[in-house]
Amino acid sequence: MTNSSQTPLVEVRGVTLQYKTREHLVTATYRVDFSVRKSDRFVLLGPSGCGKSTLLKAVGGYLRPIEGEIRLNGHEVIKPGPDRMMVFQEFDQLLPWKTVVQNVMFPLVTSGKHTSRSARGKALDLIAKVNLSKFADSYPHILSGGMKQRVAIARGMAMEPDVLLMDEPFAALDALTRVRMQDELLALWDETRFTVIFVTHSIPEAIKIGNRILLLSPHPGQVKAEINSVPRGQDRSTASAELEHKIHKMLFADEIEEAAHV
Predict the structure, then answer these.
(1) For residue 220, is the peptide bond before it cis, meaning its omega torsion is within 30 degrees of 0?
(2) CA nearest 57: which of 36, 26, 29?
(3) Which helix (H) or strand (E) is 197 found in, with range?
């Protein structure tokens, strides 16, 4: 449970985001509001094209709003920083010429936070937490997709960011590996209570991962609702099934209504 009296860690206020393609200026989100508190597992959920990944990149500092503002610890986000680390969907986000332990060490050493020796110790500890100790000296090309994502998570957490930003990190995995990765992420959260903003278009994944879920409408993304998920460990309960039905109805009610009038 989060403390409602806590000052928000992340505040997104009236944020409209746009980006250019070769032919168009695309409005990705329109006047989005939400706040994230310390230790939240906050999920951005919506259909493809609703701007959830663009919104995550804006929190990361990679895109400036044309309207509204994003604040972290009370300070406006204007550029990327080590207080926000991102884990992407792609498996090729690791440096292929570095071993697993070297990949996790890399941001620690280059940021000047650690010497090589202390960075290695911290990296090995995190690699153990994601169950990859046997592969610490292996190179990425021999790892499975799920293993690469574990390394990316360990690397992100090594910097002890204020918030971990995860952009559909398990979407490209097979179903069984995806479930296992969800379980491992939650086990890691149980241990360290890190703050995460997690993007997905999967309703069951949102219910399982999140303690709070922000529903975004189709393009351009606007807030439809913010709801609490079911308690931890109840993602296969009757309450979870009812919540899944409720969310599906809220997300796609407009489409159903439009179809009914065709």
Answers:
(1) yes
(2) 29
(3) strand 196-200
CA–CA separation, 234 and 103 (whole Å):
35
Q: Is 200 left (phi over 0), alpha (psi -120 to 50) or beta?
A: beta
What is the pLDDT tens value at each position of the chain, 262 positions in all?
444 447 899 999 999 999 888 888 889 999 999 999 999 999 999 988 899 999 999 999 999 999 999 999 999 999 999 999 999 888 788 999 999 999 999 989 988 888 888 999 999 999 998 999 999 999 999 999 999 999 999 999 988 999 999 999 999 899 999 999 999 999 999 999 999 999 999 999 999 999 999 999 988 999 999 999 999 888 888 999 999 999 999 988 765 444 444 4
Q: Which domains does the chain have, with CATH numbers?
A: 1-83+197-262 (3.40.50.300)
Contacts of 98 by beta carbon, 8 Å cutoff, 6+ apart: 106, 139, 140
Return the closest-CA partner of residue 219 out of 12, 65, 25, 29: 29
In the numeric block, the tokens 């179809």 are attached to: 259
